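Instructor's aside before we start: the two examples that follow are unrelated to each other. I chose them only because their records fit on one page, so don't look for a connection. First example below.
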Amino acid sequence: MSSSKKVLKSAFMLVGNGLAQKLIGLVSTLVLARVLLPEDFALVAIASLVIMFIEVFTITGSEQYILSKRSVSKSEVNSAWTLDIIVKGTASIVALSLAYPLSLFYENPDLTPILLALGPVPLLSGLFNPGLWRLKRQQLYTLVVAIQVASKILGVITTICIAVLTKSYWALIVGQLVTTLATCLLSYIVCSYRPSFCMQHMSKQYGFSTFMIGQELFGYLKSNIDTFFISKSYSNAEFGNFHVMKYIAVIPSLNIMLPIAEPLLVEMSKHNKDIKERAFKFTVTLMILLLIAFPISLVMFVHSEQIVRILLGEKWMDYHKILSYMGLLVTSFVVANHCKRALIIKRKTNLVFVYEILATTLVVFSVVSHLDSSIVVLVRERVYIELWAVLVFFLTTAVYYLRSAVGMFFVKVLPMLISLALLGAVYVKLSHGILLFTDSTFLFLALSLFVFLGCFLITLLMNYSIFYRHTDEGKYCLKITQKLIGSLKNKTAR
């Protein structure tokens, strides 16, 4: 199978996996909301946040380390797996030891047994069969997706059954444990690979992992620091609106763009010593991701009012601008993730760490500086400062990663970037014009999206004909498009 076909198939599989898990989780939430009390969700949420924060310190980057290497031996895989177990096992011990102190801090004794129950989760995730990494290296995502979806379904069924029978928050806890345990067991049932403890290459990964933990910690803080300040400085109603808008805004990044990016970025790590090959993969991967992310950001930015009215109802309308501004982060997420992968391939995790520190500092400064402003203004400024940070990070990474090929890179991407910017400006004007002809939210949104699709296709065709027809990047994108259309035709014919 050709590399482009593998990339396309893998992207489809991962996007489907992300959306399927999101749908399963949404159905579970809707059912549980009718069985359990809000206090039950709050109690388990506190415990889960504690575990998640502890797990941030356990992200050794073992998977990224294995996926980014041009070739990998069995001993390297086993060493990375061993490091994961050691670090995540330590995290489980820390979580268990904090169970009682945290219950005193929150003045809620029910937290102690909950944290004791969830404490083993980090260790269980560290025990996952590293054969899953090998499948991802080979772009064989079918088994990976099957394991994740099956585990999620099993966990949801367990949660709902226990909740209906007991009306207890323990349903949420047991469901989470079942999902993690099922993933671990299925990874050994499905994957033939059998790992063994090995410390041979652990020191080689140490420098990589040290900065990975640091960058993940600051990345976590950058993404969630606004939530902390807003929860303390604004009313519950404002915080509730912000939380829901942010939840909707990050769905495209986590459940569409991240799955699409993974197989593309894995492909980018192969045969990257040749500067021309490296520049080609860096350029074409960025172009593909931007052509998907930019329309999502633009639609959320322009149509936040209609999206909120349809999904949430009129009572949420005063804060739709939060969704509008946070939608822009879909594109910045793609660019930043692309740059991080390039630097990880070059084993420059220290540079990613520096970026996360600087970006987090800027976001904190922006949020703290606008705590006296309205929540919409705070979000707007917080988003703008992150966009500037990502732009500087992108320019710096391009110069460092591409070296002598950086000039040709900008020559190739600038026409597309300028075209997308012009498309955005034209579409904003057109959408305002369409709004004058109808008062129906559904009709306005449908007409606007139809107009956007037409403008977007015209923009792509013009760019291809004028700038990319005779380039390797243009030919590769055309090949991907043809395979996609062919795949859709075959499925329709069946």
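Example two begins here.
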Amino acid sequence: MQNQHLVVVVDDDESFRIALVDSLSSLGYDTCGYASADEFIAAAADTTCHCVITDIHMPGMNGFELKQHLASRASAMPVIMITARTEPDLESKAAAVGAVCLLRKPFATDALVKCLDRVLNP
């Protein structure tokens, strides 16, 4: 399956980011990764990608702030949030900023693919 959508992974955990980029690439997605939201924004990657998968808790701009930044630029790009945290209110916070999915690490690849399919192939 060749996918024409660029999916960006923003996560400060290098080993996780690389593994997720590699996993998505093996599934046919065009992917790249950034170590921070600031790096992603500086690269102007939001102008070329079709979906962002971002960790919620990162140094500097967090995932919620990244989603709000994109919204302030009138971007309707779907954002999937991921986290290893267990706070019970994260789902409602993610929904409030407009995230399309919240997945808790470790998550099944199938769960991520379902989120991606829902937003990239409506």
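Residues 6-116 form a domain with the Rossmann fold fold (CATH 3.40.50.2300).
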